[in-house]
Amino acid sequence: MIDWSAFLLVAVASLLVTSIVVSAYSFGLRLLAASGRAPLVEPASFTDAITVITPEESKAAAKRQKKAAKKNPLTDGQKRLALWAAYACFAVAGAAVLYGIYLIIPYFHH
Amino acid sequence: MDLTLIVVLVIVLALFFDFTNGFHDTANAMATPIATGAMKPKVAVGLAAILNLVGAFLSTAVALTISGGIIKEGSEGVLITPELIFAGLIGAIVWNMATWLFGLPSSSSHALFGGLIGAAIVGAWSLEPVDWIVLLDKVIIPALLAPVIAGLVAYTATKLAYAITRRYDSRPDGRDGFRYGQIFSSSLVALAHGTNDAQKTMGIITLTLIAAGIQTDTGVIEPWVIITCGLAIALGTYMGGWRIIKTLGTGLTDVKPAQGFAAETSTATTILASTNLGFALSTTQVASGSVIGSGLGRRGSTVRWATAGRIGIGWVLTLPSAAIVGGIAAAITKLGTVGIVIDTVVGVIVILGIFWQSRRNGAVTANNVTSEVAASGEAVKIKRNPKPIKKVSL
């Protein structure tokens, strides 16, 4: 007997878990940006797929970041709230991943 | 031939297959983070090797599918001898190496199943020894569905990631931060790879031990089998990584951090969910499906159907081709000891020949190194930086 429900389960579980993890992480980044701390992460190495960033360009990006942070319409309290909300989002993403790993290890279920 | 000698030979061959599997598949987990610059190549490869080793210890569901499911052993089926498994492995390795040389997309897992099935059919000279329903249920249908599922999930995830972080006021959107996320998501793919692919070799070795009468309990995997398989795949991953570092930068398509993060997360969840249910799918195909899906999730993208078609044909061909090679190898083993010697010699000659050939052609080129995952990125054409459509700000 072919168990079609198992395939459906895989599809739904993958979609649900991925959506939760990716959404939580994205909201975290969005809130970080809202609190005026949009992360600037330069590529660790430059492959063909990445346009090489010169030191001037990276400086300019940092300047833009600072300027945007200064013009931030949020109050200090709101900024702090956004920052904590961002951390909460990252925690949700991390927890979802850990729970997923917990589920697949049979050792924890014996 | 001495029974224990053939068992040792099969185990060595299985571990070699495991090594080539890791060698071939480093890029599955690490092509996207290296491409977006999330990690230095050396760091990425080392991390992939360690996590493959860890992953090998996590689960045994897939190994049990292989050792106990697909091919019927013992009284109710046809007797599977270590010689037949040996022939199947020869088929899998030869096909894997050949596709690697010619830069054809293929799947180590399907090569393995193809080789075994071919050997079993020829060895028994009937269709009896293969449990076709289990084969369909646990291998063929997952093989067809998993890349599609991974693609759809990656498409959705990419749309979500972009929609949530999109800003219309041209302020920094923080999407650089996906590079940090990629470190975790690609680690998860490496872990998932270890849980699914290392188990395939564990299944083969256990099948051999059962067939040779050394192990009687079909429901367990011996600890030494788990350890050696984990080490072999980790070593292969690490060695394969050097090859990728050397030649990376050729033929990689533009991957953005948000897209890479979405693709890796969907690859990892699809593999882990399937592993949990004992589906032996091809991690390469799942990763390729995710890369294509996430490419389509970006605005201004279209599919290059010719490239996508070529990848698809490679997927379909692998199982029957490896089955034919495995079948021929099994036919030769029927000659007895002489047959095994012929198989071994031919196998070694083919492997050395392919290595020599790849060195002679200026070592590795864009055709054979960047793997199917990187190649599948080319199946999607993306316009650079399309303008935002709406003007809403938060």
From TrEMBL, chain A:
Q: Which top-level group of life is the source organism from?
A: Bacteria
The entry's protein name is: Peptidase
Keyword list, A-Z: Membrane, Transmembrane, Transmembrane helix
Q: Where are the transmembrane segments?
A: 6-27, 81-105
From TrEMBL, chain B:
- TM helices/strands, residue ranges: 6-23, 43-64, 84-104, 111-127, 139-162, 308-332, 338-356
Localization of this protein: Membrane
Q: Which residues form a coiled coil?
A: none
How does the UniProt record describe the way this protein sits in the membrane? Answer: Multi-pass membrane protein
Could you tell me one molecular function GO term of this UniProt entry? phosphate transmembrane transporter activity
What are the entry keywords? Membrane, Phosphate transport, Transmembrane, Transmembrane helix, Transport
User: Is Membrane found in the keyword set?
Assistant: yes
A GO cellular component term found in this entry reads:
membrane
Q: Matching Pfam families, A to Z?
A: PHO4
InterPro entries, A to Z: Phos_transporter
Q: Which domain of life is it from?
A: Bacteria
Give the record's GO biological process terms: phosphate ion transmembrane transport
Q: Which PANTHER family match?
A: LOW-AFFINITY INORGANIC PHOSPHATE TRANSPORTER-RELATED, PHOSPHATE TRANSPORTER
Q: What is this protein called?
A: Phosphate transporter
Q: From which organism does this entry originate?
A: Orlajensenia leifsoniae
The lineage is: Bacteria, Bacillati, Actinomycetota, Actinomycetes, Micrococcales
